[in-house]
Amino acid sequence: MESPSGLRAGPLPQGASNFTRRGGQCYRLLGMELTCSRCHQAVQPGACFCPVCGLPQLVYSAETAPEADQPTRWNEAVRDAGTIVWKPALRSALALAIPAGVLCSFFSPLGILGFLLMPVASAWVVSLYTRAQRPPWITVSAGARIGLVTGIVGGWFAAATTAVTLYAMRFWFHQGKIFDNLWENSVSHQVSQWTAMGADNQSIDWFKSLLLSPEGRAASFLCGMALLTTALLLFSIAGGALGARMQVKKHRPEA
């Protein structure tokens, strides 16, 4: 902590010579490089937070900070940028993850481009959350956790939308024959590839009968849903971390 005389308090490292002791305290000159007590990375003198892990840095200057501004200064430094206030974060995540998940389903008109909606939604959630905090500061790990929650919500709605759409098209609109033909063509194409690779005919017939059975179709559908949810989750985590990184550059705390 910075003393009233303009010196910064800190532990005395071994072999250090540019340090002085006053009244039993060890003070470090402001011009020297400071390190974070958690991650030991370099911290700019006067910075409120560590730029790597977000740990609050206690800074006090009796010469430059008016007495009336001290409570506000200390209140800003107390909040850990790595801690998430989940109530506003969940509110933003639900508002953006639900429509993104619906548009990322198997039968979405956007197709594979729908996967790009999930990282965008996660980055947007992080942006909304950060702007509501004081100070507006967040770590990359906290952004990734918000992205994880956004991905869970979005992936669940994507899977639910796919299941409801498939059920409606098969039983309500009586279009099940279309999906059956598509699946049979896909299995036939796979069997042709196995035959060209010289696989055993008995094994090929067994796998073909398995894939065309109701159990095989259900298992294939569940595997596809699991892959869809996992992909959306990974995209969402990456989007949240990237959004937090962008917020770090945009809202870097001032000294």
Our count of domains comes out at 2
Largest β sheet strand count, sense and barrel closure: 3 strands, antiparallel
Contiguous low-pLDDT stretches (5 residues minimum) are 1-31, 60-78
- As a whole number of angstroms, the C-alpha radius of gyration is 28 Å
Strand order of the main beta sheet, please? Answer: 1-3-2
Q: Which percent bin holds the helix content?
A: 55-70%
Overall pLDDT confidence = 77
The tally of strands reads 5
The structural class is: mainly alpha
How far the N terminus sits from the C terminus, by CA atoms, comes to: 14 Å
As a percent range, the share of strand residues is 5-15%
Give the count of helical stretches.
7
General form? elongated
Order of helices and strands: EEEEEHHHHHHH
What can you tell me about this protein's structure?
This protein starts with 7 loop residues before the first strand and ends in a 5-residue tail after the last helix. The chain is mainly alpha-helical and 255 residues long. It is elongated and about 75 Å long. Helix content is 57%, strand content 5%. It folds into 2 domains: 71 residues, no CATH class; 165 residues, no CATH class. The longest helix has 37 residues. The N terminus is likely disordered. A 3-stranded antiparallel sheet has the order 1-3-2, with no helix packed on it. Strands 4-5 form a two-stranded antiparallel ribbon.
